[in-house]
Amino acid sequence: MRDSNRTWHFAARPDGEPTMDTFDLREGDVPDPQFGQLLVRVRYLSVDPYMRGRMRDSESYAEPWAVGDPLQGGVVGEVVASESDEYEAGDLVTGRGTWSDYTVLDADDAAPVDPDVADLPAYLGILGMPGRTAYFGLLNVGDPRPGDTVVVSGAAGAVGSTVGQIAGLNGCRVVGFAGSDEKTAWLTDDLGFDAAINYKTTDDYGAALDDAAPEGIDVYFDNVGGPITDAVFPKLNVDARVAVCGQIAHYNDESVPTGPRKLPQLIAPRAKVQGLLVSDYATRFGAAKAQLESWVASGDLQHRETVVEGLEHAPDAFLGLFSGENIGKQVVRVSE
Amino acid sequence: MRDSNRTWHFAARPDGEPTMDTFDLREGDVPDPQFGQLLVRVRYLSVDPYMRGRMRDSESYAEPWAVGDPLQGGVVGEVVASESDEYEAGDLVTGRGTWSDYTVLDADDAAPVDPDVADLPAYLGILGMPGRTAYFGLLNVGDPRPGDTVVVSGAAGAVGSTVGQIAGLNGCRVVGFAGSDEKTAWLTDDLGFDAAINYKTTDDYGAALDDAAPEGIDVYFDNVGGPITDAVFPKLNVDARVAVCGQIAHYNDESVPTGPRKLPQLIAPRAKVQGLLVSDYATRFGAAKAQLESWVASGDLQHRETVVEGLEHAPDAFLGLFSGENIGKQVVRVSE
């Protein structure tokens, strides 16, 4: 066990794409948990696209990081010291900590992890925030009905891969956009997507959608934005629902991006476009967890994680999200 | 009474803004009503922005006009010959006819008009399709709640002026965009809008909204699109609703217009944007009519019509919609 603690800090606001200058690894003492807290040795750390928003100096749903702050995110790890009756040393937990070897969690904000249900990284993906985002975003905003055609962008990511599978369980035709042949093969061969489009090798997304979604699009679950979304909108069916979960194509834009106007395309289909944040569904997280665990246990939902080795490579893992390095959930293994 | 019948026909599909070459006035015989039909002498004829969509050769909610077709739209007039038990000569009716001196209506599709409730042109505006559009679009898609701030574009038009007043009746703060000082004065002085912005003389719509809607925007009823809409979206509050009723700024665009991307702006506020067509609410038109007539009778709803004199000037009346010539509903007086 290390007797010091490394933590990634937010070194500078990026201008456009973050670089290594955005991050600063500092070494310090292992923190002491206070009353009600747990000291956790981090096993796995989550990097997520929404974190790019916290790097901006502007109000949004997630508080902006101040320059110098430790970077924060989901972790899974082992309790090494407990100042709470709820957990004891040796327990495995998940919660929101720092990008560190050791992090302190409030016991009230931590949740137990059962390695018999799924491997630890899954608790940062399909059984964590991304899985809940997929569950509530698809079912509550997308509102899929049997026979619907559901299109998912970022379909091989943590959220998208879960969305597509839940849509399939709901009797929908499922079409995914992803950025490599390995990813599209995973979607169709392993996850049961009806069709998948490699957006990096396909020239005409509209024509590809004509093939893959010949009856039009009833639900679009958007993680990406940009040209994929531009191709989807003209094919929305009457009463279509668009869940805007993410817009990773635009997160590094420093000015407001432009593109084809979409509001004129909404009138004829009376389509509904709605932004979503998983935190709005917090009172129902327990129900989602039970359902997702059940689907994972039964094999109805498959999941996959891309593991970057070593806390020192956490920035690479984060940056890899924007170039699509990950298949499934991107995590960092911090310790064995 | 004329013993011939003039009818405007669709002469050529416009490229961009329609011109007089788009229209062709032909003279022919007064038609004979068949069984179940009425021959109506048109008093007033409606011109509406959505008609621009029917001039395109593409599928949409309203069937495209074929070149050579008579132009169609809402009319109010007097029955001069009836082949139906429901109406007799002398009755005043409204329905969907042609841009003509005389038009034939199916009695089943006609509705009686009571000049004691409102002047005839009102049956093409606040008591017609525009009024119903405002009623259902605001109440069902916009879903205004007391204390909300409601912003309306095209606020001095037939739909927008009704939307703003209904929002006011619902206890909302109401802000309208319109294109002249005469229009903005009408909104604030006569219709009870809390603020109105002249979009032709205001440079910075965002700053104007900061003044007019200091608590942000809960409901946006969009008839226009373009830069007004671009200024509204960044100010949407959490849980905001956007009703996309019209996009008149873009109706004459021949290619897909571009502008600031809006989907990234929807995530933090979890805003909902939805297209609307009044025809979806057809089963409830009776209830809307009763409510709107009651509000007009009580004076809770004001209305105004801009009357262009003479069937021969119907194209001017239509073209005037795109330059904002009308205050309230634009109609054409065809006969006394």
Automatic annotation (TrEMBL), chains A, B:
Keyword Repressor among UniProt keywords: no
Cross-referenced SMART domains: PKS_ER
Q: Which residues form the Enoyl reductase (ER) domain?
A: 18-332
Annotated keywords: Oxidoreductase
Official protein name in the record: Enoyl reductase (ER) domain-containing protein
**Which Gene Ontology molecular function entries are recorded, alphabetically?**
oxidoreductase activity, acting on the CH-CH group of donors, NAD or NADP as acceptor
Q: Which organism is it from?
A: Haloplanus vescus
Instruction: List, alphabetically, the InterPro entries matched.
Output: ADH-like_C (IPR013149), ADH_N_2 (IPR041694), ER (IPR020843), GroES-like_sf (IPR011032), MDR_fam (IPR045010), NAD(P)-bd_dom_sf (IPR036291)
> In which domain of life is the source organism classified?
Archaea
